[in-house]
Write a structure and sequence with these properties.
single chain, 173 residues, mainly beta, lipopolysaccharide transport protein A fold, 1 helix, 11 strands, 9% helix
Length: 173
C-alpha cells in the first residue's frame, strides 16, 4: 500500500486541508465519520520547523471528534530543535488533531535528546505545555545508571526530568 502523508501547519489552513482529505474518505465510506488509513505519516509544523512527526502502521480517524487512533507508532517531537526533543515507540496511541496532544500506550519506549531512555506502560504529551508525563511505573536509563519511579514529568523545552512517586537508583559498577 502507498504511504499517505499529512502535513499540518499550526494556525494555518493546512488543518482544513487535512480535514478535507479525511472528509473525502468519509464520503467514500458511506457516510461514516471514520476513515481508516494504512502506513500514515502526520507532520505538524510551525513555520519551517516540524514540531511533531508521527508515523503509524495503521490509523483510524474519527473526524467528528478530531482524534486519530494509531497502531504501531513512532513519534518524534521537536526533531532537530535546540529547545529539546524526544521520540517514542509504542503499540498504540491517540492523537488530538485540535491540540497535537498525544497519548502513547503499550510497551512505550522513548529517548530524550539522544541521551536518556525511558520505558513505561503509558505516557502523555501535552503539546501546549511542552510536557511529557506518566503516573505509571517508569524505568529511566542514562549511561550506566537506572532510575525507577512511580512516574515522571519531562519538561521538553527545559530538557528537565522530574521523577515522581518515590525513586530508586541502580548504578552498575
Amino acid at each position: 500500500m502507498e504511504t499517505l502523508g499529512f502535513q499540518r501547519r499550526t494556525g494555518s489552513i493546512a488543518r482544513a486541508g487535512l480535514l478535507a482529505v479525511a472528509g473525502f474518505g468519509v464520503l467514500a465510506a458511506s457516510g461514516s465519520p471514520e476513515l481508516d488509513v494504512d502506513r500514515m505519516t502526520f507532520v505538524a509544523s510551525r513555520g519551517a520547523a516540524n514540531e511533531l512527526v508521527l508515523e503509524a502502521v495503521h490509523a483510524r480517524f474519527d473526524t467528528d471528534a478530531e482524534r486519530v487512533y494509531l497502531d504501531d507508532v513512532h513519534a518524534v517531537v521537536d526533531p532537530g530543535r535546540s529547545t529539546g526533543s524526544f521520540e517514542i515507540r509504542c503499540d498504540e496511541g491517540e492523537l488530538d488533531l485540535a491540540t497535537n496532544d498525544f497519548e502513547a500506550r503499550g510497551n512505550v519506549r522513548g529517548r530524550t535528546d539522544g541521551s536518556r531512555e525511558f520505558q513505561a506502560p503509558w505516557v502523555k504529551y501535552d503539546h501546549e505545555r511542552g510536557l511529557l508525563f506518566t503516573n505509571a511505573p517508569v524505568l529511566i536509563s542514562e549511561d550506566a545508571i537506572e532510575y525507577r519511579g512511580g512516574g515522571f514529568q519531562y519538561f521538553v523545552r527545559e530538557r528537565r526530568f522530574r521523577l515522581l512517586g518515590g525513586a530508586s537508583v541502580v548504578q552498575e559498577p
